[in-house]
Write a structure and sequence with these properties.
Chain lengths: ~375, ~375
């Protein structure tokens, strides 16, 4: 089945929009949040819990899975979906970001990137074509090409060089993908924090042509305003009829701002990472479960939430689980947080469809930022 | 509702039997395995998973919960059942064993036991009456009295003194329980590895009168044969019409032997502790998930098992989860193991009812010990 993206509703007061993204394993309703399952598991959660939470798609990471367990094992299992028992779409990140942040002794050449595994020190050399091949073996529904991700801040000169290489690799990835013809392939806009470089990157990727366009190299430490400005200056240069994916973002407020600027897809480790640390996202703001104030609190994390955690457990009990080092605590708060993010995006979609996104966002933020929960 | 225990079936070839134990929150079918939730959670598992696994009752520990989160918090929650969201019966261990194994600088007097918390070093003095009161606050369906548990091996003299104190405390516990009148109270037979002391302990407890009788101080490092001998010599001295509980046991083979000797109740941390370490119990024996042999094994832990783990995940994937340090691995193997133990006891009950317990046990052991899985 061919990839298809249809914008179904446009917000009148902002660039926010709803869409339907048809993939082989299901049609995504956008804007969509994608829980992150880097190593083939969304941390602490079982696939049936992701279904229950309403996850339409999850993310996995080609670099991590290539190194461990290795492609032969996933191929024997019949692909990543069967390996991890997830029957809905999977987007795989290329791992470019991980190669640049985790791997050791990397050497970047136009041909590809040489690095040592962060797990065992073994040397690998991967070309952009290899990264497409890896994702083909995984059976990704949406693939990301190898890109060169620069840190923040980066000089204009370095950002320009990384951009040029990213475009070069994007073209070669596109060619390889064209031969294999499975799933969808997105382009990744780079250019650090330079408006004109972002614009150039977008133009070059458009010229190559992808099913969707991702904004990479953001949420890497730059001030929030700067990220928002990059979205404002970049999104208008992306095709209106293609999905736009803001990689690695983010907090609820960042997501709503980005939705209003026309972003369709998000992924972030925040719900599960914060969950494992005992920080819960609620309609009344973030809440630190270990906080002594909750020792006697016999109410749920979020009385407005219908998830299994909030329907069955109190803050007092969750605090006890964290204090006692019990894994059920990590599980329940992670689950609640994933539900919260998915519910936030479901609410945003509904509001956009009904022409009341601005009010939805205002109400959410009023409650989220003004209420004091911890 | 008054406690009631009815033996419904007696095996013709052994002392094995089936019974029904009526408690306020449900009737237990015995022989029964009780998953251990020391700190108010069966490690890694949610209550709904325990329901799914078929758990009739879980264990919790009065000593641990008294120290953390503390009784005030559990009282505010409306008792332990509501605190941990478990609506079926709970048996609480007194924590005698933990005071003697975990706590620091303990002083044992006839009046009670003084100790320092293993968590914060705070001093506590608890009398047997306090232990009953604590379990009343928890809302235990079955309470255990404070006992003096000796290590293995122990001299006859020390074992005799501990026995005398255990009887003294049992009587005072019974009096306190009589006043408060909730749930059931069991007596704990001590006497180390001395037949005649075990017999004396059983006689003294019978004279006091309890709803059920537990065998304590076993599975503390003594050889397996010695434990079996203690069961053979002690069980005949316990009332046939009362439930018999072998504390802290054990491995599948120990449980089946003990069932054949007339034991009705078991608890053990083995399914979850082994599960967290990546050891699975299967119909074909124990299996170490991390074993390299399973890297490419695309079959479930136990093809004979119908649990969520075995129906949806392969050994290859579970091995990956353990290698990658992913919590889902601990969860899935713990869940499978709890299912395995509960299924083993369900099978034993069915076999006893149908008069084929010896064959059931022989078939189980043949498969369990002769098949090589890892």
């Amino acid at each position: 089945m061919a990839f298809q993206f249809t914008v179904t509703h446009n917000d009148k007061e902002s660039a926010a929009r709803c869409g339907a993204m048809r993939l082989e394993r299901g049609t995504l309703q956008t804007p969509v949040f994608m829980p992150v399952g880097t190593q083939g598991t969304v941390k602490t959660l079982a696939p049936r819990e992701l279904h229950e939470a309403g996850a339409q798609i999850v993310l996995a990471n080609a670099y991590h899975l290539f190194l461990r367990p290795g492609l032969d094992i996933i191929q024997e299992a019949g692909g990543l979906h069967r390996f991890m028992n997830w029957d809905r779409p999977i987007l795989t990140d290329s791992g470019g970001y991980q190669i640049f942040s985790l791997a050791l002794l990397r050497k970047i050449k136009d041909e590809g990137v040489e690095f040592q595994s962060h797990l065992d020190g073994n040397r690998h050399f991967l070309r952009p074509e290899d990264i497409v091949d890896i994702q083909n073996v995984l059976g990704s529904d949406i693939m990301m090409p190898l890109d060169e991700c620069v840190a923040y801040p980066t000089s204009r000169d370095l950002a320009e060089k990384a951009l040029a290489r990213t475009t070069l690799w994007a073209g070669r990835s596109r060619e390889r993908w064209q031969e294999s013809g499975r799933g969808a392939l997105f382009g990744i806009v780079q250019g650090s924090t330079y408006d004109d470089l972002r614009e150039r990157s977008a133009a070059e990727l458009k010229a190559i042509g992808f099913q969707g366009y991702a904004l990479g190299g953001l949420s890497v430490g730059e001030p929030q305003d700067l990220m928002y400005n990059m979205l404002r200056s970049t999104v208008p240069h992306l095709p209106a009829g293609s999905p736009r994916y803001l990689m690695g973002v983010g907090l609820p407020e960042d997501i709503l701002e980005a939705v209003s600027l026309g972003i369709d897809m998000f992924d972030c480790v925040v719900p599960t990472r914060y969950g494992r640390n005992g920080t819960a996202f609620t309609s009344r703001g973030k809440l630190t479960v270990r906080n002594g104030a909750f020792a006697h609190d016999q109410t749920p994390l979020d009385p407005a939430c219908g998830c299994y955690c909030c329907q069955n457990f109190t803050k007092s009990y969750l605090r006890h689980l964290f204090n006692a080092g019990e894994i059920l605590g990590l599980r329940l708060v992670s689950f609640h947080n994933v539900c919260f993010f998915l519910e936030l995006l479901a609410g945003a979609r509904q509001a956009i469809r009904e022409g009341r996104f601005a009010a939805f966002r205002r109400d959410f933020e009023k409650e989220y930022f003004c209420a004091s929960t911890s």
